[in-house]
Amino acid sequence: MPTLIDTAPPAAVPALPSLVGATREELRARMVEMGVAPAKARMRAEQLWRWIYHYGVADFAQMTNVAKELRAELAQHFTLARPQIVEKQVSIDGTRKYLIRLAPGVEAEAVFIPDVGRAGALCVSSQVGCTLNCTFCHTGTQALVRNLTSAEIAAQVMIVRDDLGEWPTSNEDRLLTNIVFMGMGEPLYNLDAVDAAIGVIADGDGLSISRRRTTVSTAGVAPKIPELGERTGAMLAISLHATNDDLRNKLVPLNRKYPLAELFDAIRQYPSLGNAKRVTFEYVMLKGVNDSLAEARALVKLLAGVPAKINLIPFNPWPGTAYECSDWATIEAFAEVLNRAGYASPIRTPRGRDILAACGQLRSESVKVRASARARAATAE
């Protein structure tokens, strides 16, 4: 059975602004605002950076190389509080899902998946809700609440590092090694914040999860794709799911605005593509919809000339969906067509399905029944 961990009642919103998630420049600006001389503000910001992102401290008193008087003044103006974990669920396969309260009425989900990437991957959200309405995606049934700030995105990593006990930062024996922007929202509709958050996450003097171990997934906001690569240097993933415009228009309505021809023109402009930097195409296997061998052959043709790998994703059901997952034999036959054409096409093992943490299942608590209530109802039955 999955483990369900409820936190205490919602904590009061901190009266002071938190420095957790702040960029280097934001930390410097905060020092100046507090009265630190501009000539010394950068040095102080570097000290804060190291304590916040390398050591993960949650109390200014722990910053032993910062003058005692300055620590007291920092505590008067700021906090190192993280956003609140409202609820944590642990799957039978070790996947952890966190429901995070970022502000009153503003909640997002992040998912840590062990044994993915180098060691483990964190799926972060860039928005609360989504505007794309992809018909197979649970998040798409929730209206957009708002974009997350860069600090709120970076704070998701901090929260999970806290939970995993991974302070101070080390490059050896780490559990969290990869970041994937595949949670709630369309990252390219919040590119400024995503860019700034990646800068915080990738910094070698702090969290130190490199840009090459960071993947940003988009449903196909074509005009922003080359810009994403130029600004972030991250790996690119495309939520594809169909090989022709008619079907993709139904599955991914954004395709009506940016059809496949325009999308692939943008993909080919992504900087530094090659065998060492391939585009990942995500393809959810929907029974009787997009899983025929003809579709597999069409996919091979569509990807011609693009350094690519294809993640075949067995559809993860969610309450109220009209779709079913393709049969396993069908998925294997589909993969074989891709493999014979020279494309790596792993079949992604479903993770966290029992806690609705798998691909396409995320949806914030503000618009769904509390998992704890579901568990109590199941027990009663």
**CATH class descriptor of the largest domain:** Alpha Beta
The number of distinct β-strands equals 12
Helix content: 25-40%
Largest sheet: 10 strands, mixed
Question: What name does CATH use for the topology of the largest domain?
Answer: TIM Barrel
Name the CATH architecture of the largest domain: Alpha-Beta Barrel
Count of alpha/pi helices:
11
For the record, the count of structural domains works out to: 2
Spatial order of the strands forming the largest sheet: 1-2-3-4-5-8-9-10-11-12
Gap from first CA to last CA: 16 Å
Low-confidence stretches: 364-381
How would you state the average pLDDT, rounded?
A: 89
The secondary-structure class comes to alpha/beta
Strand content: 15-25%
Give the overall shape.
elongated
Our Rg estimate from Cα atoms comes to: 22 Å
- CATH superfamily label of the largest domain: Aldolase class I
H and E order: EHHHEEEEEEHEHEHEHHEHEHH
